[in-house]
Amino acid sequence: MSLSLSSKADIAVIDSGVGGLSVLAELRQVLPHSSIIYYADSANCPYGDKSREEIESLTMDVVKRVVAMGATIVVVACNTMTAVAIEKLRKRWSDIDFVGMEPAVKPALLSSKTGVVGVLATTATFGGELYQHTKDEYIEGKKVVEVAGKGLVEFVESGRHSTKECEELLAEYIKKMLVMGADKIVLGCTHYPFLTNQIERVIAKYEKCKGGELGVEIINPAGAVSRRVVQIVQKRGLLIDLPYMGEIYYFSSGTDKQREFVAQFLNNNL
Questions:
Q1: Which sign does the torsion angle of CA 231, 237, 241, 242 carry?
Q2: Which class does domain 105-219 fall in?
Q3: Does the N terminus or the C terminus of the chain have fewer Cβ atoms within 10 A?
């Protein structure tokens, strides 16, 4: 594995920041020999509270960059980008396969035993048509507790997601779901898997107060996304079987500190 400032690869993963690395890690597991471009627009992160027009414009600019590098499959590894812009991306680049993120509210609602599902996402993601349609289709007789995780993306982007301050903020959000009886917590932003350990601690503390395990499951949709990419790769005849690993080409509009975070993540996880 290496980092490079120039590249050409069929697959690109884009995100508003470093959150999409959680998706990249899943892709690396199922497509170890494929070279992948990763583009983080960290200079403009977070996207979640921006206007639809600004999100669309920023997303279009990022896609133009990775398409120019040769990408024919673009994983929009950002729930906000997906919710706001993916249909326009598909119309603008009809020859590109776009794979987007969607909070896994469907499987959560179908498998919930309490009938209550918690979704942690950005404001823009909650306003997405696909999310609303899916929720409305499967919510009958059940309840979805939606919590906008304001401030969490910033903690992850700055590398401060393991701090006491981040966990205290996270606890406020997760407890809103737990007190309502949620037994499924859907991570509706690709930054949030970096907070899984902290979420588990919050759940454990809550369970201790309640005197027993509540069987709460944290749901990360990255696995479903990687499986969809594999299907497209196979259909396009791009499946590679080589005796060595593919390259990871990383690009960012952000700072050197974010580059250091990414380099450390890639070295430790890919």
A1: negative
A2: alpha beta
A3: N
